[in-house]
Structure formats: C-alpha cells, structure tokens
Write the structure tokens for this entry.
Amino acid sequence: MIKLHNLDIRTVTLAISLRDCANPDVNVVCENIRNKILKYAGNFVEYANEIENDYSIPIINKRISVTPISIVGEACENPDYVKIAKTLDETAKEVGVNFIGGFSALVEKGCTKGDKLLIESIPEALSVTECLCASVNLASSKAGINMDAVLKMADIIKRSAEYTKDKDSIGAAKLVCFCNSASDNPFMAGAYCGYGEPECALNVGVSGPGVVRAAIKGLPENADFSDLANMIKQTAYKITSTGELVGRKLANKLGIPFGVIDLSLAPTPEAGDSVAGIFQAMGLEHAGAHGTTAALAMLNDAVKKGGIMASSHVGGLSGAFIPVSEDAGMIEAAGKGYLSFDKLEAMTCVCSVGIDMVAIPGDTPVSTIAGVIADEMAIGMINKKTTAVRIIPAIGKKVGDKVSFGGLLGEAPIMSVNTLSSENFVKRGGRIPAPIHSLNN
C-alpha cells in the first residue's frame, strides 16, 4: 500500500491554543505567540520524522493550527494583524512546519471589531507570508448565512489574488470560506484550534485514494455496489488504523493528548493518488460523467463507515476531497472539459468540503464570486454539513490558461463561470435566516 499505491499520513497537525496570549500591547502578543508555539512545537518535526522512520510510513506534512487570531488580537489597543501574521509565519519556519493555520475569524452571525480588522488585513498578510493560511466561517446551520460577510470575503479573495498576481494569485489558494467549519480540522487552509479545544492536541489527517482505487480494481468487473462499498469500508479501516497508530505514538512522544483522526481521502497531483481515479475504477469514463455525484456519495459514506470502526475519535471533515488543482484526475477532467463548474457544485453536496482549489478568470466580478460563495454556504447550511469555497481568480488569466503552484497545491486550468449577474442579489445584505431544522433544541 505504501510503495505501490501512495498510502501516507497526509498531515499531523499540532493544535495550540493561544487564548492566553492576548495583551493590550501587540508586541507582547507576538512574543507570547512565539513562546507558546516554541514551547509545544519545538520538537514536533523532529519527533514526527522519528515516527515516520520507525514505522516506514510517510508523513507528508507537519502543520500547526492555532486559536482564531481575530480573538487573540482584538484585545490590543492598536491591533496590527499583519504583524501577528508575520510572527506566525516566522515561528512556523523556525520550528520547521509546512503550514500554520488559524489566521481566522468566525462571523456567521456578525463581526466584532477584531473580526473586521483581521478580515481587512488578509490580502496583505497572505502576500507577505509563506506558510500562513487563513479561513473565515460565514455561515452555519444554526445561524444562517451572513451575506454582508459573504460579499466582503468575495472582495478579500479578489484582493488576495491581486496582491500575489506575480505568483499565479497564490494568496487566494491559502484562503478558504466556510459554512459549519470544524474546529479540529487538521487540513489546510481551514485548520484552526477551536475555542473549546484543549491547550494542545495532535490531530491527524489520513490519505489513501490510491489504495482505495487499487482495492476496487482488484474486484471482479461485475461486482455490485454492495461488494464495492464493503471493499471501500475494509480499506478505509486499514488506512484509519494506520493513522491512529502514528497519531497516538506521536502524541505520546510529545506528551500531549491525541485529538482526532480526519478520515478524508486527500489526493495529490501525483499519478495514482487521485479521487477521480477511484471514479474510473468504479466504471465511469472520467470524473464529470453522469453518475459522478452518486459515485462520490457512496465513496464518502463507505469511507466514514469503515474508518469510524478503527477510531473512537473521528473528527475534522472526514470523507473525500475534490480539490481540482491537487488531484491529477480532476486536473485532467477540468482541462479536457469533462468537469464543469456546475458539476463541481453538485458534487459538493456529498463531498467532505466544497468548491476547492478551483481557478477562474481573473476578471470575474466580485459579485459573481460572492454568488458562488453564497450557493456553497446554502448547501452546507441546509444539509447540516461543512462546505467551503477556496477559489482562485487568477489575475491576468482567462479560460484556456492555467495556474501552477507546485507541491501539494499542484496546478489547475482556468474554468469558466456563469456570466449572468448576481450583483443585485448579493448586495441586499443582512443574513439569510437559518432553516427550520435549526430549531432542534
């Protein structure tokens, strides 16, 4: 599984609470943050590498998530969120992690002073840092959709892309908008340490789409869907058991609690490590064919059923990711026109997250981006699931061009979006009320 089918631990993410780092002086806040991260993460990468060598299981990313920085910084008399962002980035590099998440705000019902200042600082913060990731929760099944924040974040996404246009607008690739965000999610760009999380914990994100694909390919071609689902469940159990083993050993070595294991099948641009490849193994000609949403729904459910038996602490997002730029099969499907933006939206109804790592023309209006976000927030709100938008308006590029980020972020063709105007709708403002099933106390 490891050598032939790309089984790996996609991420071990150290969640660190920074609630005790608040101070009226932003310089003190930055020093407190640095000291807190060094205290818990000083040996993190070294110990993770030791576990990786002991068990011969690749750990692809070592990451840190922290308390939403809007909360930590708003006690300052003169908040400087860009300064805090630089401190997070510099400290992440110092301890050797790949990414640090938590430059975040939770604004599903409205914004505090700190939330507004943090959101406004995101474009600059992402342009002057390398490891930092940002997220904003705009909606929930309990609160509804904050449409003022949706429109604001559409503008922030566009500005983040413009600030980094010389790097294929990578700033937008490190920024995600959520409905029902998970406070223990170990995956970037949406990882943060929720307010109710412990002082420090280790959360693990597994992978293994290549392993699932190989298992399906090993079945007879006429195997029915019950056999298919059972094979996926059995494989997910093995993958999750591996992640549980690595996570608990590393947490014990660090002397901190084991948090959760996220069951999400996270693909990479590497050949053979693709969720889209699983669809083909199931019998579809390619991702995007009619039947793709049904295939994804079954895959997501079977992964959860199998993985939940291997761990008592499943959390995060859990299921299957469909990021276009990070999945070799999805890149191919989008490039050949098999996969439309509308089909992607339909698939997000049953996947782990949502519109993920999708590149669109750089001249797409802010109001259209806001409409995309609003649609995705509505899917999550109504279905009581996490949905998200990580969309990249590639400045200076049009349909037929592509963006290339390298590494796990991969590359993506520029996809077309509907050109009909959403402006008068998204500018109404206020909140879309929560659905009736939110009244379940």
Observations:
- Residues 225-254 form the longest helix (30 residues).
- The chain has a mean pLDDT of 92.
